[in-house]
Amino acid sequence: MLYVQKYGGTSLADADRIRIAARRSAELARQGHGVVVVVSAQGDATDEMIEKAAQINKRRAIREMDAYLAAGEQMSAGLMAMAIGALGCPAVSLTGWQAGIHTDGNHGSARILQVDTTRIRRELGLGKIVVVAGFQGVDPEGDITTLGRGGSDTTAVALAAWLKADICQIFTDVDGVYDRDPRLFPDARRFRQIRYGTMMALVENGAQVLHDRSVELAREHGIRLEVLSAFTGEPGTIVGELESF
Ligand code: ADP
Ligand code: ASP
Ligand code: MG
Question: FRET label pair with 123: which of 36, 150, 156, 162, CA 20 to 30 Å apart?
Answer without folding.
Answer: 150
